[in-house]
Amino acid sequence: MFELVEPIATVTFSEVANEAFLALGMRNYWDGYFAGRAAPLGLAPAAVVHAVFYNFADGEVARHIPWVWGKTNPQEAIAVRERGSAAALRQLIGPLADSPDLVRVADLATRAAVSAPTEGRTLYAGLRALDLPAEPVARLWHAATLLREHRGDGHTAALIAHGIGGIESHVLLALSLGMRAEEFGRIHHLPKAQLAAVVDGLRARGLVDAAGGFTDAGRETRQRIEALTDELAAPAYDVLSADELDELIAGFEPIAAAVTATVD
């Protein structure tokens, strides 16, 4: 489900949605990112957004929150993000956007997306408090975003349970992709000394070897985190019967494939 939901939800980070935020006076992509994604939390201070998002370096959130709220407000940011994301998804999937099948997929996805418990899921709970879009493409994107952030909140819990910090999680992901930490896009901009200290900390815990790759313990730790993340994400789909879940998967597949093919 992650592989099917992720491409649909993350159209919100595409150029079409970004342009909508730049039109509000945002200075760059990251202003729009934080305004849109943090908006369901209201006027939460940077420290709270940093805690909820979990995987940004110290000070990164504060460069944007609360500055963005001088250019827009959470209610407007929510609306702009929805419009921009729906427009991006419609553009990427072409004729599928007007298919009757999409309405059914959006309905099934929404049933799953609003069914999971909110306790301990801060960002998911914020999104759950929003009105559901009526237009099918927007509703599909919104449902995918709910499912993504529900999983993301659970992933944070799994990382915390295994003692893995936000920047450490990026290092582990980089290693799992066969990359060194300083090559990974989300953290390559950080000072080399800072990244080296993070890797050294993982090495001291026996998760990274002398060459900067996974130890067996490091690989096993990441596998446990991913397995727990999947386990914590599963309740969102319990509301669907086995046949409905199969139908949702079959409906998601061409949409996610169209998004991925266009982006690639």
Task: Indicate the percent of residues in helices.
Answer: 55-70%
Pattern of helices and strands: HHHHHHHHHHHH
Which value, in Å, is the CA radius of gyration?
Answer: 19 Å
- The strand count comes to 0
Gross morphology is globular
Reported for the largest beta sheet, the result is: none
Q: Roughly what fraction of the amino acids lie in strands?
A: under 5%
Q: Give average pLDDT, whole number.
A: 96
What is the rounded distance between the termini?
A: 20 Å
Structural class: mainly alpha
Q: Helical stretch count? A: 12
Q: Uncertain segments of ≥5 residues (pLDDT<50)?
A: none
Question: Could you explain how this protein is built, in words?
Answer:
The structure is a single chain. The protein has helices spanning 2-9, 15-22, 29-38, 46-53, 74-93, 100-113, 122-128, 136-161, 166-176, 192-204, 216-233, 242-263. The chain is 62% helix and 0% strand. The longest helix is centred in the middle third of the chain and has 26 residues, at 136-161. With 264 residues, it is mostly helical. 41% of the residues are buried. Helix 1 crosses helix 8 (136-161), helix 3 packs across helix 5 and helix 6 (100-113) crosses helix 12.
